Amino acid sequence: MTNAPEFKRQCATAGSAEQEALRRKRRQGSENRxxxxxxxxxxxxxxxxxxxxxxxxxxxxxxxxxGDLLTKLVPVAEQQGIDPVELIRRTAxxxxxxxxxxxx
Length: 104
Prior knowledge:
This protein is mostly helical. The chain has helices spanning about 5-35, 45-55, 60-80, 85-95. About 0% of the residues are buried.
């Protein structure tokens, strides 16, 4: 015999799981619509090939993440009177302790 309260809880859980899946699907749709912007930059073709070889299939995601980082970093760098790229170099150099790898 089925325990009625347990059965109701299982049905409610299944329903809420379906609702959550539907919410996630809707949210993904809006995230995709928000990702319609394009960024085009000129870049040295040799350096681009090196970057593509190093990053592989992760390159588009890495570029988006760098854009997100710059959005937050540029105002901080401006407040400190530092070039944002120089701030990134200094920070990375101190973390990696390899200044020779980070020179432009």
